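Human: I would love a firmer grasp of how sequence relates to backbone shape in proteins. Take your time, and here it is.
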Amino acid sequence: MITEWFPNAKTVGLLYCSKEANSQYQVDVVKAELEKKGLTATLYPFTDSNDLAQICTTAADNCDVIYVPTDNTVAENTGIIDNVCAPKKVPVIAGEEGICKGCGVATLSISYYDLGYATGKMAVKVLKGEADISTLAIGYAETQTPKYNKAICDALGITPLEGYVAIEDN
């Protein structure tokens, strides 16, 4: 996605909360994939919202694009990231729609409704005795939708890619 939206990018900052193991896993995977594509990917961990602005500023000063995973601390502080990156004209690619709505250009987002529905179907199987929870296969949401943030794209002068839909303001 980063190389599709920003084919001239050479450096990507991976901004995440170091206290969230899920975020560490995501940025490690993304870093490896970006490096396979010849990009320089640098980790920018922060510990909490108190040091987010400083770390984000460093990332924005040194990178062409910033990527943020599905990170709870980021989700709670998208305004800080937007306040740093927007004036510097540094685009952010987000790991999910809620974060993208606050500070990102684009995302490949799952539908939390679909994920909840799939989880409910699994729960019904367990409750009816049709499946043993200890051996139940991991389930996934069936669809992912490529989305973009119209306001941020407009502010940065970025034309959304074909096949992406605008995030709605609800």
Observations:
- Residues 2-109+145-158 form a domain with the Rossmann fold fold (CATH 3.40.50.2300).
